[in-house]
């Protein structure tokens, strides 16, 4: 990878707005049957509540690698799903993953709700839907949001609650089978990298959804964390088997974000980045 291209303005248009790198046209034909089957299965199972379906991740970028990439979907529903329906959705995702195991590592289906999504209070959270997703079924809500610039609001909402994810992951790792251990480890490794990147995305004014690029941006600002980031990237490429090493790293790195001191640092960093982003956007408007 040519890290020289990762400089201020990367992933942004000439006015400083985020440029999406996902498109229906980017989807490789190999994944179309899996997408269609997934959508049809969702329609059949949740006909009365399914509003729309969105695709994100490497398949939506056109960068998926057979057997190494996931098929990542967001299912948007009208009204909350009952616990029974949530269990059925989890079962459906497992069945689709098994059916297409020769193509994708996993079919993941994330739940979203229409009322929550269209609420004005969640406008910045919907940068994910606007910039990282493509609609593959139903009403496309993305036109209601954006365009977005790299601001502290985007950074705060970019990757969800790391504290909640840490607690959930550590609990799962304790009793996970060997196969689930690999899956949970890789999932949280990705989340850690994205969380680190969110700490510097505004300061750097670099937008990327690719983990290796996010890693380089973070390392540029925090070189002392390079060995940790490289370890996480290695685990994403090759699932780890050393349970003690994984648990210890996740616990130490994850708890950094739960500590009062680190959370205070994170907020100060984001506030500092607000002024930097204002300066950058003022400069970009003069170019």
How would you summarize this macromolecular structure in one to three sentences?
The chain has 287 residues and is α+β, with helices and mostly antiparallel strands.
Q: If you had to describe this structure to a student in words, what would you say it looks like?
A:
Keywords: Transferase. This is Nucleotidyltransferase domain-containing protein. GO terms for molecular function: nucleotidyltransferase activity. It is a single chain. 55% of the residues lie in helices and 9% in strands. It is of the alpha+beta class. The protein has 2 domains: 155 residues, no CATH class; 128 residues, Beta Polymerase, domain 2 (2-Layer Sandwich), CATH 3.30.460.10. A 4-stranded mixed sheet has the order 3-2-1-4. The radius of gyration is 19 Å and the shape is globular.
Topology:
Blueprint (H helix, E strand, L loop, with lengths): L31 H14 L4 E7 L1 H4 L9 E7 L5 H17 L7 E7 H5 L8 H6 E6 L13 H6 L4 H14 L2 H27 L6 H11 L4 H12 L5 H16 L1 H27 L1
Helix pairs in contact: 1-3, 7-8, 7-11, 8-9, 8-10, 8-11, 8-12, 9-10
Number of strands: 4
What is the percentage of strand-forming residues?
Answer: 5-15%
Question: What is the overall number of helices?
Answer: 12
> How widely separated are the two ends?
28 Å
Q: Overall mean pLDDT score?
A: 89
Protein name: Nucleotidyltransferase domain-containing protein
GO molecular function, one term: nucleotidyltransferase activity
Keywords: Transferase
Domain Polymerase nucleotidyl transferase: 46-101
Sum up the structure in keywords.
287 residues, alpha+beta, Beta Polymerase, domain 2, 2 domains, four-stranded mixed β-sheet, 55% helix, globular, disordered C terminus
